Protein 1
Amino acid sequence: MSVNVIDVTPQGTPQVETGKFLSTITQAVQMFGRRAAGEPGSRYDSATGYVGGADVIDQWRRYSDSMMDRAMAERGIEPGPWIWQARADAIQRENRRRVRMGLPQLRQDAVALKGGHGGRIETYNHVHKRIWEEKRQPLNAMRLFPIDTGVPVGARQHTAIRELGTGNAEIHQGGNAIPRVDVGLVDETFETAYVIASVGRNFFEALSTDYAGWRRYEAALRLARRVVDEKINEISWKGAREKKLYGILNYPSLAKQNMAVDFTDTPDPKAVLRALQDLVNTPKIQSGARFKPNRLAVSVRIHAFLHTRKHEINGGTDTTIAEFFLRTNGAGITAIEECQELDGIGPNGEDGILAYRDELDTMGNCIMQPTTVMPVHQSGPLDQITVVWAGTGGFVCGDVGNCILGFARAV
């Protein structure tokens, strides 16, 4: 008679090999299933002296464990935790059977199951109460640049108006026409956009995660706020061309300059210092002292380089390039900010060096609405959605002449 095997292993996990399964059952019965009719522990259908006893599989398991222990000992292999778990389960099953039959129970340290224990393996596993959250990069746009909150929520566009004057004064001589001056207005229109993310919550799923002590909804809500903040930060730096939004790095009239030297150990440190000083002084020189940056932001690589390389190669003091620059730049820059957003932004993968003036007249990061959580609303009988959103109008730079972006190779 053939044996039918129905494999109900969940999809996505390895299926049972039917042949090996039947072979194992056959060996277990042949080794431990022969009992005479009426022998204690024999089954009522064991008159043939075959398939007797309710503990055939448990005896086979113990025998297999002992053989495996011996084989592993011969190879110098230490049994893993799963071995002890299997033994503990075997003890519990055997004791349940013995209770039903009125037989004495096995001790938890039974010699037949050497090394076993009387509890589940989870009993001996300490689970830390703290759940470590994923670490994400810092967001620097909101920290470094002035925020413009003047555009209200609902505006689809916002327009900046610039006043331009023409004409000049002259020395008057008899008969000469009196010179005239005039002013005109130039408009520049910008788009707006809303950044959104949502968190779904099912009633029964919430019951399960809350029971487990994992506040999944709160964690997902924190993540939603974070991804919205990350997108606002990205727009603040790089803009969003498809939405006609400008960031500081792609602002149309921002001055850009390729650095004359690489920020590596190859050139003389003094050459690197001069190149950095020339960059931050370019707006002042080109504008006749009308424009002057007072802040400096650099990539992570350039920041590390400037703060770890000495200003003098031979002799001198231990002053780094950064320290010497901050004392002598002449533009009033007192700190060099580290920004991973400036890593590899150049046309050929160069790192960025941004000199700017942190005044709203120079630049404004237009934030119509900071990241906000909307009230929860029902999306179904047992489902809820929470929307997190923010509104942005990108960057508006009035006196963009105070800013300059340099590109430099760095290690």
Protein 2
Amino acid sequence: MSMANENQQGGGNGEGGDPQGSLGEDTKRSLRSFLGAGAAGSAILIDIAAMAAAIAGSQEFVNSVLPVAFLAFTLAVVGYFLGARMLAAGALVFTVAALAISAVVLQGL
């Protein structure tokens, strides 16, 4: 009899007794992944804007190249740690490529 009581008590307070707990974890994981994708996507958009400014020959870009690169790298790393690993890795590669292309374009001007 004591085994039946332990099973009943354990079932009510354990993993199976709280379906909201697992739903909450799934929701948190999805939210983190969504925010990570947003951060990594923002890094890519910043890189596109920086490349457009470099191609246009904007003097403001020359003055703000390091803060722009730092912001893009930071957003990509945040996206990586929030769960959007592939997109964030792509954002990091795209940031490096954008900086290289922008440097080549600015040297040609």
Protein 3
Amino acid sequence: MMRDLTDSFQHASETRYAPLLVSGSSISMMVGNALGGLLSGRFQTWHLHPLSEEYAIDMALRLGRQLGLPVTEEIAVALFELTQGYPYSIECILNSLSPAIQRLPDVTALPDVVFFEVTNPLGALYEHYENEYGKYVRQLNGDGTTRKILYWITNYPGEHLHPERIAERLQLDLVQVQESLERLYRLDIIARASISTFWGPTDPLLLDFLRYEHYVDIDSLLPQDAAAKLRRELNAKQREMNRQAGHFSEIIVAGVMNNFNNQQVAGETYFRVAGSVTLPRMAQIVRREGVIKRGDIHEIDVVGEYNLYNQQAGNAALGAWLVSVRYRQERMGEQEVAAFIEHAASYQAEKRYGAVTRWYFSKAGFTEAARQRLQQEGIYASDLAQFNALADLFGLLPLAM
């Protein structure tokens, strides 16, 4: 028996302060079907975004400890690359019934776990996507236009979807394309960017699920052939996972800087400088990932830019933190500090910031000569203990010894 539940919460929602929180995945459909009509405008929708890189990594490490799994820094970075920070996806992967989970901390096990999760009915992600999207996607089998658009979207994730552009590329009727996009929007497979344009899905594992469903239901591939095709695509992601894992420390340092919000902290405690230090709210943080100039790896690994007020336009209106990150077992010496000073000066000559703060983070610390040079130059310096104390201010897990 079907029953309309709208009346059961309409009275409460009509009060000035409605004590109601409605949660769900298919928000667009929920708003249209349950929160429309007389309730229209009574509710404000709030989309929860994926975790940022540093918090997704932090979550993976914490969950690994809780579950007794050997989740290393490399695994945590790879999980972010695979999920793009969707917390439920991270949780499902680490709680997976896939036999491949026993191969951790071998990072090559993760594509196999993901494959299980998006193709096997025993996978928690498969069940989730099947309940939320699968049944609707199969209803589109008779709609050739929507099928073509859906398949195109899965191959161009995150692209700005203009009906005119899609109609031209796929040689489809514009009105049918507009109707199909509205249909996919109501299923929350795509998101609305403006009145007539949309954004493609940002959940990469939803895209993998949709690809697999498309291969089987629409391309009519045998399950084993669809599986082989998806496996190849998942394995191709391994290269990016490996590359990012090599920059783990830069990711974490950038993540801590992303939490700066004009706080005042004790300089000696965190940076080996006297007095208080302001942690400016960053307008932009860029990881440079091993930039090479004149044949040498550049010492500036992370650049954080923030706004300076009462300054003229251009880069002079920006301040910057120039950061060198060395996550090695040996202490940094005076020669490395000298290279950092040179590269910071070169970068400042190019950018011409209104103010520059230089920060050198070395996991193992510094030699005595290096410490003296850093102090003479007024450069902020942190070893692992000091950096972990700083990370703790923002509730992030410490880096490993």
Protein 4
Amino acid sequence: GEKLQKAGFSPLIGLQSWVAYSGLLGMPLWIGAVSASRPAIEPLVGYMASVQLLSSAAAGLACAAFIGRLNLRYIALVAGLLLVFANVFSAFAASAATLFLMRGLSGVAEGVLLATLNATIARTGNADRLFAFSQTSVAVFGILFFAITPRLMETYGVFAPFFFVAVIGALFFLALAFGSGSDAEQATDSSALEGTSSEARWTLAGMLALLGLGLVFVGSQSGWAFMERMGDAKGFSTATIGAGLVAGQFLSLAGPVAAVWVATKLGRLPVAIIGAGLYVAVLTAASMPIAAHFYLVAALCFQFSTLFFVTGCFAWLAARDTGGKAISAAPAAINIGGALGPGFAGWLIHSGGYPTMGAVMIVFFILGGIVIGAAGWVRDEPA
């Protein structure tokens, strides 16, 4: 187990990455399933998705506030069990109120799992490779989820996406609860994470980086939410768009590897800034009135850009933020930006079309890159 971790592999971290990011990845399919099977709830599903993301952000921030005073293994166990409970009951929820509650609870579980995942990786001493492994695991989960779940939905309908996540959550819970040996111990790093840490403090650099992350993901989630619609506006069929997005999931597997390679050449912080630049290029190709075939390049490269950017940003934060507060709060910053982005983007599209939305979100990418760059120049003084 220890040799695997030093090489950049940890099965438990991979499994936790699956469950922690299941909310973001699974959202399109459960929204579609609920909308198709329960017409009375359909007008509310967008609000449910926002509740889930905001609950995740709030839980992640709360967890980050107590980093250094929490046993991350124990709270990850509780969060894993809550994730299973919330998704099982989501599958059977008959009323909008029940589904709102269950999606909120699922968001809380995801936020805690994201925070503990990042804090654990940051304390292993091999953050670059393990963050790359974590993000690659997320890409693999996305491929499996989008390959298997739609077929299950044909037979089981709304049950399929929720039960898929619940089963993965149960596997994680069992692996963490009953795992033994150095791999489980190294992956949870319990000896380093129990008790109080005097290094766990907020710094100006960390807070600037979180602001930059949030700004970038306002643009990122806006572009992702309307990626299919932008392709339709350029005249592509749903089948062609879907093929491009699926191919993009496979290409995204190279994103974390590319981020580590660039980091060895240029450093960790430039990876995050380059990633923001990749987003600018991708959204320009997707939203602007230029040759239509550039849209297919955008569909192919969007998820690659996301995993490249996140891997670089997380690895830099882990190296800079030794106390663990900022790196454990980073997924919350992503979720806040992700929750705010699509609603704002929808208003921009209604006002001026996809080019207007794209132009504004490109400004968010540039501002986010500048703020993250500024974080690299400030001193690590307590905020």
